[in-house]
Amino acid sequence: MPLAFHKKPALVVYVTCGDPDLATTREIVLAAIAAGADVIELGVPFSDPVADGPVIQRASERALKHGTSLAQVLTLAAEVREHAQSTGLIIFSYLNPILRMGMEKFCKVARAAGVDGTLVTDLPVEEAGEYLRAMRAHDLAPVFLAAPTSPDERLRRIAEVSRGFVYAVSRTGVTGQRQQLADDARKLVKRLRRVTKLPIALGFGISTAEQFAEVSEFADGVVVGSAIVETVERNRGREAAAVGELVGKLLAVNSQPAAVAR
Amino acid sequence: MAALDELEREYARAKRDKKFQARLTELLTTYAGRPTPLFFARRLTQKLGGAKIYLKREDLLHTGAHKINNCLGQGLLVERMGKHRVIAETGAGQHGVATATVCALMGFECVVYMGTEDMRRQELNVFRMRLLGAEVRGVSSGSCTLKDAINEAMRDWVTNVRTTHYLLGSVLGAHPYPTMVRDFHRVIGREARAQILKAEGKLPAAIIACVGGGSNAIGIFYDFLNDKKVRLIGVEAGGRGEKLGEHAARFRGGSPGVLQGTYSYVLQDSGGQIALTHSVSAGLDYPSIGPEHAALRDSGRAEYVPASDAEALAAVTLLARTEGIIPALESAHAVAEVVKRAPRMKKSEIVVVNVSGRGDKDIGIMRENLRID
């Protein structure tokens, strides 16, 4: 399945769909894929993004202003799939838009669109019974967030039900860029290795090529979100090109280990 | 999740701990001013010409509303958990003031998140919180009200979870909050039940309380749940119209959904985006409702009705002039319902209205909206 990481580290790119509009999101995603992204997280904008920092909050507000919906994001997924057969596609959403559409219908439409998996930010594994059944029935990969504060028992449960990869959160807190990666991140990945053979992607706060290189020493994949969304925000009119450049930069440093041996 | 598990365990232990309960009772008595009186509203009863109306005077508590019950309880839990930083959200400012008060009392650092629209509406409470040593952080996303303040408090909590307790102020959020906050407010109904039996020798026909998140309502309802003949009536904010965005009547315009970790009735659009709300009362201006209220409504045990901004404002004047009590705009919604309901009830019947808070904080809004000649 396309969710498999093709290279190490794999690059997972998050975009807030509909910012500035869906047609541009499509260009941004295709540019990221062309530049080497392995997995795309299509973010569904939500009115109350409690897990997100200011950058993704602002993008969500802009996307919602012109009514971007989950249904539209699924249509976008199908379009992207037509152009990119081997890229992993994940729907990244808060729970309520999915509930409103109906879990069954959501899974059916997502599968038909060629989506590989789903990450529901505000659905903890402890409450995910019905969701997991629906995901399994439609052959979709559920991806869960593992936090540095999660006890071992919880990590085990997350590892047990996750498919595709496990998303390790680099630190406590919301999405957004940080100067330094906490020790938390390394420790968490180590703890996760003990309970799963699935690849582990690390996310939250990774924005620079140096950080990307650092993370690639211990994780299988790196998720870059806010840095992508901020690039979109700052490059009006040339969003796709700018994201393509950023992705290229992230991957370039990694292929030149000498450049990061500081 | 780890923090919620910790809180759940700690609360379960505290609940069984006689020392904890004794300390809480002592603070509720000697600091907050419990028990609060159950007052027979003679002139209001005469004026409406129907059921005998009693008022449960939570407005007489320290800090001016029922919110202190929960804050003292959770404050003691913070001590037990060894945390030293407390955050809270506030709508009308009553919960923020109660939290700031308890933090001052117990020596915790305190940060209160408040929508900038609410800071404007509840200026006096903002000052009170700051006077008490709390930091008030304005939230200017979304509707700039309670919902957005909760979002921001949740973001703070997940970031600083190791040192910080989120002192949630209503029967909302993820488990164990709705249950725990209810338990801390049960004292309202426990007292009211004993007081009405003592005063009248029988139970009331109805209990009326306003419902934002629903903490004062569940607090007074809970000990009457098994008294099947007692009607439980929650009053939501009918705002200024029936269109989505003009009110906060979740049972009239909402449908099941998840907001901020709670599955309940939610005001939302067809795509599952949370709707904006309006109420003259900041404390009721919230698009979801405590999940236990949703269960009580679906089982038919409790009923929920709206009262409009205008009805609530009229009720303020009425209660002020018949009984010399200026209720908070939130509580005025409950008074507005008794104004409609009491005249249709028998004179032998009793109705208890929970006056959950006093109106001092709302004087500015009342001045803007009421023509006093």
Going by helix content, strand content and strand pairing, the class of chain B is alpha/beta
Distance between the termini of chain B: 55 Å
Strand order, largest beta sheet of chain B: 1-2-12-7-8-11
Question: What general outline of chain A do the C-alpha atoms trace?
Answer: globular
Poorly predicted sequence stretches spanning 5 or more consecutive residues of chain B: none
Task: Outline the structure in words.
The complex is a heterodimer of chains A (262) and B (373). Chain A is of the alpha/beta class and 262 residues long. Chain A contains 11 helices and 9 strands. A 9-stranded parallel beta sheet of chain A has the order 5-4-3-2-1-9-8-7-6. Chain A is globular. Chain B has 373 residues and is of the alpha/beta class. Chain B has helices at residues 2-16, 18-32, 42-48, 67-81, 94-106, 116-121, 123-131, 146-159, 177-200, 215-221, 250-253, 291-299, 309-323, 329-341, 363-369, and strands at residues 38-40, 52-57, 85-90, 109-115, 135-139, 164-166, 206-210, 231-239, 255-259, 262-266, 302-308, 350-355. In chain B, strand 9 (255-259) and strand 10 (262-266) form a beta hairpin. The longest helix of chain B has 24 residues, at 177-200. The interface between A and B is medium-sized, with 33 and 29 residues.
Concise account of the structure shown:
The complex is a heterodimer of chains A (262) and B (373). By secondary structure, chain A is α/β, with parallel strands linked by helices.
